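INFO  loader      accepted 1 record
INFO  loader      residues=285
INFO  predictor   begin
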Amino acid sequence: MPKNSTKLQRIGKAGTVLGALILIGLTGPVAAFDGQPAPARAIGPTDLSPSEALRAGARQYYAGDKAGALGSLQYAAENGQPMAAWKLGEMYASGDGVKEDDLKAFEYYSQIVREHGEDRPDAPDAPFVSSAFVALGSYYLNGIEGAVPKNESRARQIFTHAASYFGDADAQYELGRMYQENNGRMAVRWYNLAALKGHVGAQARLGETLYALGTSDKKKARGLMWMTVAREQAKGTDANWIHSMHEQYFAVSPEPVRQMARSMADGWLKQNRPDMLTAQQLPAQ
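INFO  predictor   done
INFO  writer      dumping tokens
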């Protein structure tokens, strides 16, 4: 799977929830897992329940004992814990504490979708389930050499379920990308949903698409506004391509379009990200 910014956002969103597991439910049998290397024998039902194994695995992982976490998470995943299966999928997808193996990651994501794909969108595990849908869709979109052929139709179907049923911003963004070249209006629909949730990549692509569709200065300014909003928030792996995109469109825009876009962007940031405006006004130390 491509190691792209969407994947990092997805990991961060669900990973925050997983990290919280080490702060709760660590009394009783789980307290025995203190971050030290796990024993060689496999975890069984006489040791921990699946939910306890999940918490133990999370604690071991964040304590740096990824080998120990692997056994705990595998036991939890095999016994119906989607958070554990999700974490194992991410570990194998990125080679985090294990040898990178996209097929194993694909199998863990497939397990989550198969067992929990129809869970309620407000269920506690929903962030992991929707994240697994996005990961699985990306594998079908790009394929796994020698194992999973590319299947754009299947990828679109999976992204659409995650985008519609779970309201997943990453899935909405991926649908926007799939539609952008051939159906600008559908791309705008999906990008807009993700942009309103604060997905910075979707905000930039929404702006690009609106600018291309724009038939007046006002409509082009609306596109440049979204690119400006994205540029102001972009960081990490998103920053370079979003800044380059903004510079490209800003350079070819007439001054009235630039002024309207700046005014609209300031208004959007004031309403939706007042923290950013406050930070910009603080004097340098």
